[in-house]
Amino acid sequence: MRGLQQAGSVLLATMMIATTAWSAGADDGALATVGSKTFTRAEIEARVKPKLIEIEAQKYEVIREGLDEAIAEELFKLEATARKITPEQLVKDEIEAKVPTPSDADIQKVYDENKEELQGQALEQVKPQIVEYLKAEKSQVRHEAFITELKAKYKTDDKLRAPTVEVATAGRPERGGAKAPVTIVEFSDYQCPFCKRGEDAIDKVVETYGDKVRVVFRDYPLPFHPQARPAAEAASCANAQGKFWEYHKKLFANQQALADDNLKTYAKDIGLDQAKFDECFTKKPGSAAIDKDLADGAAAGVNGTPAFFINGRALSGAQPFEKFKEVIDQELAAAKPAP
CA–CA separation, 287 vs 265, rounded Å? Predict the structure, then answer.
């Protein structure tokens, strides 16, 4: 824990020094000139916007972790003082003593889910490691629950907020609660295998949170995926007939078969009016909307797929459900009215 804090301090100090150094002499916005060409700060920041957004997110995560540790330490001190014990004893009483011993069923479940990684080792060989893993996992859950209890007891005003990027939904296809407190804007590519994994996580998000989340899908067909743009055009035609999500699901389930003939077959499979679909697919009326998705995504710093913005908070790549849950839970907690 101390090592992480020291590393975070060094990182922040380095960033502050670097900021001071490269800011000097550029107050007028001009960073360089080549002949008659002037490169302004705004122009270069726009050029490297995806990297700047990523750095800002990393900076937030470091500060967030450090702040959470500091808050937890102070809360433990307050409660330990109130009970007239040491913080270490408080940890033993409220965390260690309240973590149950993993059941045989839990152990078996972890073993079964990780058989491939365990490379044929018998359950008895790896049981001690599995037990330690489960105890550590349950200890973390109990620790977080206890911190929540202490925050309710001792007034805690956490003002740190994650950096956000404004991303329009642009009337694009959506699912979930229309008035949900959490909106997820997804930029995706039907030919991208990582997007399929991201879609699986989003499906679980919708299943878990229901009307508490709204998911907006925006197209971001990458130039090196030749079938991604036609697939997006076809999905737009399905949307025109009110069956976007059915067609959308069909495309992700058949990523290796996205030729034009396949796209037309999928329209038939989900019960679309074939003649209307074929005419739409030929005329491509959805092209302007897809172009806008690409432009808006680039402006928001998207440089690959999938890319997600959860209430404006950037989340890049095929992240697991747990990462979505972490951010969504934070946003839901922030959306609750103060007591």
Answer: 21
Between β-strands 213-219 and 182-188, what pairing exists: parallel, antiparallel or unpaired? parallel
pLDDT in tens, 25-37: 455 689 999 999 9
Coil, strand or helix: which one is 257? coil
- Rounded Cα distance between 200 and 207, Å, is 11
Q: What is the pLDDT of residues 274-307, one digit of tens each?
A: 999 999 999 999 999 999 999 999 888 898 999 9
Q: Would you give the distance in Å from CA 202 to the centre of its chain?
A: 10
Phi-psi region of 167 (alpha: psi -120 to 50; beta: other; left: phi over 0): beta
Distance CA 103, CA 83 (A): 32
Q: How far apart are CA 124 and CA 258, in angstroms?
A: 47
Q: In degrees rounded to 5, what are phi and psi of residue 43?
A: -65, -45
Instruction: Choose the weakest-confidence range: 8-12, 260-264, 293-297.
Output: 8-12
- C-alpha to C-alpha distances, 25 to 10, 45, 49, 232, nearest whole angstrom: 25, 17, 22, 47
**Distance linking the first and last C-alpha atoms of the chain:** 33
Helices (H), the chain: 2-23, 41-47, 49-83, 87-94, 104-113, 115-118, 123-153, 193-209, 228-240, 244-253, 260-269, 274-283, 287-299, 321-335
The predicted pLDDT at position 115 comes to 83
